[in-house]
Amino acid sequence: LDSLEIAEAIIKARQRKVRVRLVLEGDYLTVRRAVENPFESGGTHEINRLIHDAVLRTHINVKSDFNPSIFHQKFIVRDGSALLTGSTNFTDTGTSTNLNHLVIIDDEDVARIYSREFREIMQGHFGKLDEGHDPAPDVVRVSEVPVKILFAPDHNPEMEIMKQMAKTRKRIDFAMFTFSESSGIDDQMIALSRGGIKIRGALDGRMANQVWAARHGLLEEAIGIKLWTVPSQGALRKLHHKLMV
């Protein structure tokens, strides 16, 4: 959380007597190298620490995740009746210079499932040390549309992604920030393309050219797959989406 605008909105909600609880990735509250005088302001991620202090001064219940892995969730539950989620980090780059998306769902059942996940996070029940804690994935209907909600790592979403891809009849479109080779998903894409399914993908230019990226194998092994890489240029920093149609 380094967006002052979002931080101010969170603080204003608390000042309106709204109960606010917050979990942040702790890595962005530290400096890369120890400084000579830790009581002086400055260094990497200073804006994150400034916002963190402001949040604490407003008596917001905030927990920082300092485990070695990345805390990667991005969601808000409002009043137990609506959910905001997507690929967007609550940062200046996430909202202004990266290609991202947000989804807002007004549904109490969806909000209830995410509220349960939030309670588990606040209690420390997440990550590899607590894998398998969640019950089976929930399926709810939102305006008669079935919505299945999975959380990693408990629900092994890779298998669900492959299962949904297997239902494809004509075409798959996807936009992805990071897509690694030999994940199972790329193997499924290759098999589908050989079966006549058209596949189009947009990838972040820097990540797609890493040695471990799936792009290389997809272009070598598959037919009917078209891939575009989006370079960092001008105001655009990253393609940060995580979506598939």
UniProtKB/TrEMBL annotation:
Pfam families: PLDc_2 (PF13091). SUPFAM superfamilies: Phospholipase D/nuclease. One of its GO terms (biological process) is lipid catabolic process. Keywords: Hydrolase, Lipid degradation, Lipid metabolism. Residues 67-94 form the PLD phosphodiesterase domain. GO terms for molecular function: RNA endonuclease activity producing 5'-phosphomonoesters, hydrolytic mechanism. This is PLD phosphodiesterase domain-containing protein. It comes from marine sediment metagenome.
